[in-house]
Amino acid sequence: YFCCASIGEFNPESGRLNVWNGGLPPMLLRRHATGHVEEYPSEHLPLAVGGDELPFNKTLTHTSLAPRDALYVFSDGLIEASDERGDAWGLHRLKAALAQDDIDATRIDHLQATLDTFIGTSTPSDDISLIELHPVGADDAADETDRPEDIATQ
After folding, report:
1. Can you give the pLDDT at residue 149?
2. Which regions of the chain does DSSP assign to beta strands (E)?
3. Per-residue DSSP letter, 73
4. Residue 111 class from Cβ within 10 Å (0-12 exposed, 13-18 middle, 19+ buried)?
5. Is the pLDDT of residue 136 over 50?
6. For the chain, first and last CA: distance in Å?
7. Torsional class of 145: left (φ above 0), alpha (ψ -120 to 50), beta (otherwise)
8. Please, how many CA atoms are within 13 Å of residue 14, restricted to the half-sphere of its CB?
9. What is the pTM assigned to this prediction?
10. pLDDT top residue among 95 and 51
């Protein structure tokens, strides 16, 4: 048995984010100020792969988050979801949807609607999981008016 995992640690005082990704698609970080989407690929094997023969690699990737940036962690089922012709939604479509600025809904609702439109009547062949995380630090903890409660994390 094995377990794919993404693990993150956020320091709200410094804005520093440490991540470990084993076996999942890349984490995506959308920078609010620019709309740019950065990839943080899986650099590790899933947990329990290799048994006692391979030592656990605990190396972390480091970055910083600014207010209103958003981190996206998702399962491979999201980017492997396909339309009626069998074309996968793919990482490129996910990144394009994340980069859009002119949306009328929350970003996660926008992603869901974009995916639903793409797959149409097709039934996904794998689970689809998507998590959206926003930093809440000392400077913006009191002002939560522009973030939906259901996706803000502390």
Report:
1. 44
2. 5-11, 16-22, 27-30, 37-40, 61-64, 70-74, 130-133
3. E
4. buried
5. yes
6. 32
7. alpha
8. 9
9. 0.84
10. 95
Q: And the tokens for 29?
A: 């970080």
77, amino acid identity: G
Burial string for 48-78 (b: 16+ CB within 10 Å, else e) reads eeeeeeeeeeeeeeeeebebebbbbbbbebb
Q: Which amino acid is at 144?
A: E
Q: Which of 39, 41, 42 is nearest to 3 (CA)?
A: 42
Q: Are 92 and 37 in contact (CB under 8 A)?
A: no
Give the chain's length: 154
Q: What is the pLDDT of residues 67-105, one digit of tens each?
A: 999 999 999 999 999 999 999 999 999 999 999 988 888
List CB contacts of 101: < 8 A, sequence separation 6 or more. Answer: 35
